[in-house]
Amino acid sequence: SNAAPDQTYGAVIRDEPVLAKKVVRFVGEPVAAVAAESIDAADEAVALINVEYEPLPAVFDPELAMSPETPVVIHPNYLNYPRRDWQPGDPRFDTGVPNAYFHFKIRHGDVEKGFEEANLVMESRFSTQKLQHAALEPHVMIARQEVDGGLTIWSSRQAMWRMLLPELVVLYGIEPSKIRIIEPYIGGGFGGKIAAREEPLVALLAIKTGRPVKLVFSREEVFLHGGSREPMVIYIKDGVKNDGTLIARQMKCILSSGAYEHVVGIITRNCCFGALGTYNVPNFKFDSYGVYTNEPPSTALRGFGSSEVVWAIESHMDMIAQKLGMSSVELRRKNILKEGQRNANGEIVHSIGAHECLAGVVEYLEQEGTISELEGNWKTGKGIALGSKYSAAPNITAATVKLSKDGSLTVYHSADEMGQGCNTVAAQIAAEDFGLPVDKVRVVFGDTLTCPFFPGSTSSRTTYFLGNAIRLASERVKEQLYKLVAWRLGVAEDELEVGGGEVFVRCKPDKKMTIAEAFAAHRDADGNLVQFDELVGNDTWVQDYAPENPETGQIDARQAEQGKRLTSFYAHTAKGAEVAVNTETGEVKILRCANASDMGQPINPKMCEQQSEGGVVMGIGSALYEEMLMVDGKVLNPDFTDYKIPTASIVPGG
Hints:
26% of the residues lie in helices and 25% in strands. It has helices at 39-47, 62-65, 111-117, 160-172, 199-209, 219-225, 264-270, 273-276, 306-324, 328-335, 354-365, 422-434, 462-489, 515-519, 557-561, 605-625; strands spanning 100-108, 120-127, 140-145, 151-155, 179-182, 213-216, 232-240, 246-258, 283-292, 378-392, 395-404, 409-413, 441-445, 496-499, 502-505, 508-514, 522-523, 529-530, 534-543, 567-582, 588-598, 630-631, 634-635. The strands form seven sheets. The protein has a five-stranded mixed sheet with strand order 1-9-8-7-2, with helices on both faces.
């Protein structure tokens, strides 16, 4: 570890060393590294390393970790760690609570007065387990030092521009222009490959050996060091009127990040959106804490904290409906945000699709089910839930579009293609912009040397951000093309359109020129010889936003009136299920599932369907099957033999 840099890295708080020095904070933390020409040689070298450990106090429960009785403060000097992308002196980091490195707050209305006005006040505690992403492809990376001192990294990594490249710059002092990251097609991510894990270590070995170095995680290493969904404890206190009107809500969320912040600092803030996007809450108090424990580091898993918060809220809504003796559907319907209302952080909300989603799921569940097929000691029931998923702001995304003289297009981008089909969507958007079939579009992606900036395929942003950037870049190409053609057709540039490999006059479509003819050598109006083989357009989509007040979580009212938001948008969804439980054995059968999602304009409906279905299956896994079993910081089931994920046999067909 003496050869490792003294600098640390991390998504928000740079608190993690490349190799542990003096203190090991979780079981599985790297303390030494070996590079060899064969696995056998590497195993032999590792066997020769002798490490002496002195047991230290540890804490694994996040609530105990942040209490005055905590047995250990895991990072005593965390306030002195460097941070990135956050303003210096942000008060939310100085929590005054042991092991809590971030405290996010929302204060809206008068929550205590709301509870006084309520006819019913209920309080509950919910907790979620530690989950694995279970991507088919494990974490894989290769590092090679170049002759100019730069680095080339191949990695199965999400967010290479934003999460990996800056870390290598800080750790090794290499200029950004000398770091090239190549990201091929990723075999599944779901948030587990967002932040840098062992790329800094592989880079260190490549620098020290002068040779390319490859690391492939075993499945056990994925469980230990690849990141997992953070366990969360959620306290909810709700006040409602007798008719079900929600008057006040108070929430406290405690997120266990494990031994290092990783990306849980961001999740600690962003999990609030699960409580903001669906219901009108006139009096709202929200506190969330990111907390260190001596467990393997956590990270994002589908929803970036929203899923856990939504699950707790929806469970509580059912409990309230039962207490009031009213329909759980009606309770939800009564409290959904309406168009133009302000939510609890001051955003003016638009395009609320929750009503339609709820109606669709209810209609499906009211149809006759399959309970007649069951024999024996079975009880059946139906359940519904509402939710929303935000997309983060601010953000920028760049794209490049190239038009060749044969009429084909090439799109360059840096979004993460990991099975969701963003390359297909990118090709569709560019093809539509130029009136071409999709097979005339080539997509080049995943290379910081040749492709422009993208913040990463997280936060449900790719189609929206990348699609808009491609449209803008396409416009830049059209401007050049129309300028090239207009004088030759004797019309103004704004009279032209492109489609089917031709440029034509909008009002006189027979007056046209093929793209090949437009590119052919000719003399312009001034007599200069002109010849092009390609036209290239670059542009950037910028999503502006209104920042929140760190003490209240509120955005500025004037900026809200101007249309600015803390988020880019909310997508709404409703879920429904009919399940059967065997009262003798405890077996659960999922008879039917319903999913309705308001996603705006689907560019590729079939891929949207597969995304929705995949999300439902992963939700079934987290509800019924999946849990990383932890004892004293050790993972007891770090493989697919003992960590159960849902298979095709349990997925409902209705």
